[in-house]
Write a structure and sequence with these properties.
Blueprint (H helix, E strand, L loop, with lengths): L3 H5 L6 H14 L6 E5 L2 E8 L2 E4 L3 E2 L7 H19 L6 H25 L2 H22 L3 E13 L2 E14 L15 E6 L6 H15 L4 E8 L1 E4 L3 E4 L3 H10 L5 E6 L13 E3 H14 L1
Parallel strand pairs: 7-8, 8-11, 11-12
Antiparallel strand pairs: 1-2, 2-3, 2-4, 5-6, 6-7, 9-10
Length: 294
């Protein structure tokens, strides 16, 4: 078996791989975590190893499943719910919560492990990659066709034609066949998958405008985020969603087809933001097939 630090930094291709990795982390962390601060609904864990003190990203205690045995128990329920979603059977609020909690635990376990075992800047990069891979694995589980894509947009320079690469984290399609990315079909959905909206929200709106101008027809764009919370000093947290700017983008730039969080920030639950921002489970349970078929 690979060392845990190595395993955390390797691409994951399936939900099963994430489950195995999360359980490894949850079996490891009790041996190294030495402190815990509670701030609202979040825990801030810390570890003292030798002369080094490390902090773990804020963990939502309402969503996080704290043991590998708990993951096993919730996996059974999660897979039952996924089967319902695949045949478009309605699920209830409790089942939606299980989706968010289970997936949140998988990716935050990875984040915890990386925070403890990998250098900080590298940790952030790998959490982002793993989150994108996790979201793609979920779409695979519910049999939604998807792929990565890059739209090459030409522009003229003194040295001739060059291309701007508009990277699409995921493109979803209601059919097996994808169109060429330069001419996205109007049924396809461009998905931006990020761990946080901090410094990234504006680019999603601008990419939607850019793609529509270049391709020549409306393009459906979704944003999927892990959370918008960060550690502040050693024992506090702050939320990073700039909700006012988000509403300005929606009103004066363009409106996205939806923004979804595994762990929505408090403002997202309030009006008028909750008209645009929802838990990730709502995308799977209600919105995705509607958006694909529109």
């Amino acid at each position: 078996m690979l060392p845990l630090a190595t395993d955390l930094q390797i691409k994951k291709n399936s939900l099963d791989e994430f489950i195995i990795l999360a359980k490894r982390v949850l079996d490891y962390t009790p041996n190294v975590l030495s402190g815990k601060e509670e701030k609202g609904n979040y825990y801030i864990y810390s570890s003292d190893i030798g002369n080094t003190k490390k902090f773990v990203r804020p963990i939502n205690k309402l969503l996080f499943i704290p043991s590998s045995a708990g993951i096993d128990f919730h996996e059974i329920k999660f897979r039952e719910i996924i089967e319902k979603i695949k045949i478009q059977v309605s699920i209830n609020n409790e089942e939606e919560f299980i989706i968010d909690s289970f997936l949140y635990t998988l990716i935050q376990s990875v984040g915890m492990g990386l925070d403890l075992l990998v250098e900080s800047n590298s940790s952030k990069k790998h959490v982002g990659n793993r989150f994108e891979e996790l979201v793609r694995s979920v779409f695979n589980e519910i049999a939604i066709h998807n792929k990565k894509g890059v739209t090459k947009i030409p522009y003229e320079t003194s040295e001739g034609t060059k291309f701007y690469s508009c990277e699409n984290d995921l493109i979803l399609s209601p059919s097996k066949e994808f169109t060429h990315v330069r001419s996205l079909d109007q049924t396809e959905i461009v998905v931006s998958v990020k761990t946080t909206s901090k410094d990234r929200m504006g680019k999603i709106f601008m990419d939607k405008i850019l793609l529509e101008k270049f391709i020549g027809h409306p393009v459906k764009v979704l944003g999927i985020f892990l959370n918008d919370v960060q550690r502040k000093k050693d024992n506090d947290i702050s939320f990073t969603l700039v909700s006012g700017l988000f509403m300005v983008y929606n009103r004066f730039l363009t409106e996205l087809e939806g923004v979804y969080y595994l762990d929505p920030p408090p403002n997202a639950l309030l009006s008028p933001y909750n008209r645009h921002i929802k838990p990730f489970s709502k995308l799977l349970s209600e919105d995705l097939h509607k958006i694909l078929s529109s």
